Prior knowledge:
Chain A is an alpha/beta fold.
Amino acid sequence: MPTPANRQILLAETPKDKLGPEHFRMIESALPAPKDGEVLLRVRYISLDAANRAWMQGATYREAVVGGSVMAGGAVAEVVESKAPNLAPGDLVFADTGWQDYAALPAKRLVKLPRVEPMTHLLSVYGIAGLTAYFGLLNIAEPKAGETVVVSAAAGSVGSLVGQIAKIKGCRVVGIAGGAQKCNWLTQELGFDAAVDYKTGNLFKTIKEAAPGGIDVYFDNVGGDILEACLFLMNTGGRISCCGAISAYDRAAPAAGPRGVPGLIVVKRLTMKGFIVTDFFAERDKAIADLAAWVAAGKLKVEEDVIAGLENTPAALIGLLAGENRGKRMVKVA
Amino acid sequence: MPTPANRQILLAETPKDKLGPEHFRMIESALPAPKDGEVLLRVRYISLDAANRAWMQGATYREAVVGGSVMAGGAVAEVVESKAPNLAPGDLVFADTGWQDYAALPAKRLVKLPRVEPMTHLLSVYGIAGLTAYFGLLNIAEPKAGETVVVSAAAGSVGSLVGQIAKIKGCRVVGIAGGAQKCNWLTQELGFDAAVDYKTGNLFKTIKEAAPGGIDVYFDNVGGDILEACLFLMNTGGRISCCGAISAYDRAAPAAGPRGVPGLIVVKRLTMKGFIVTDFFAERDKAIADLAAWVAAGKLKVEEDVIAGLENTPAALIGLLAGENRGKRMVKVA
């Protein structure tokens, strides 16, 4: 039996503006061999996230992905060969495998995962998306029952969970998303109280109509104009959970910041707080237990958008940045 | 003996752009008569603050000051006639008397003050300025020994105290102020580790030189370009205490916000938090005790800039907005 080749997708060059297929290149390499303390992993599902694009712009919470290297990306992968204690063939792990069929990685950089059905939930509700929604809403913004929570990119992997968790906590929830179809889905399927289509009308007016009592918590996935509009609608003592800035990722230079900073922060005594999900991993077990209980009770609907084939990963990311997905987008590699 | 007249300074009209003497008008009115539950106050010292200008722009934490009414302002005042229990002639109070010689106000809107020497300290270190510095630094930003604290408007009433309190807490302190004279004063008289003159050179470069290890805490009195430069220099987990936005007060419309919002807040996991000093008044006694102990020990130098004469109050505020004061500016009325 011939050794299988390892298909790898490289970031061919760093995009200066909008990301396109021309920035990627697929090559075939030899299967990597694990060294002592390492394991050979078969990549199963690759997670796609807006942050992938931010990594190309420079150092973030991880070092920048530079042109010519395998595109970075988190994945659920299966151990096929182990030279590390505590890991055996068949074990599932979460790892930054990058966009490829196989990866050999040190065991200490892997997080062992349980087998759950469906396996894709390990990347959505029990993965970074679910934990980001959970901690970013509950630990950073601390919403109280009766408060109004607004979330942007509400039909995305994180936003769709944020809104549902806020509902579970007794809040009034407004989602901001692109297009009538996504907005209908938020209110009719996920139980949001209202949805705003950011592609039509004046943002300030449409959000104000959907949140007539003002905003107590804004979960910000996008930055830019939507953040600016929400700042002007925040109530005194409001909290903004700064999760991402999608609007700024797929473009050349950082835009000007929102008007109202810092004036409205002072006058309304707002808190804007950034976070990274790993800050809260000490509380991970409790979060997973809560999420699983809500899923089991039918209170948390998990939407997934699974695209088949490693070769389609670049297009899947480009499409995600254009907002074509609903729920958690991932690529099934094997 | 003829009844003394009450000189009153009105905000003649709401400024649309830069504040000037033409926006004020002085009139003489009859002495007000206190009703039941009220006291007649002789205004002694009027506090001047950048926030006075912000009140003219619209509702803040207080309602807007509208054209034609007595200009609002906090003051130390002395009771001359009382129709309220618990207050007697000779008692000192802090009150929003407005810019006038006398005011009749309900006792419940007054805060009784102790007699201290000099009385002016009631408006500086033991007044709003001192408490704002204390709570805004310690409760909002929570600086730790060894951290780098940067403060803007550092030669002002709040900033000069913020920097000294941060030094007392073991921090490395950088002050940003306008002009070599103020900068020298910060380092040579107040013990700041470094000072940056925002009027010369590239802000980002000069602040970076003064804070080569990055910024852990930025106490922001000004907003605008200085906030933007500091955002790019913040360390991971840094905190920005949003105290004021002087740069935006004396102009027509809110400027664009700083670049880096929200991108840098996300990536560096920053917290930006606005506050109002009254949020912390439950802890006021402890704060005053700490401040008094530091003053007594010579660790906290109190700089005051006292201008004589009610009629000079408009010019004193206009000058404060232009940055001509050092330390706490106030007007001695009587």
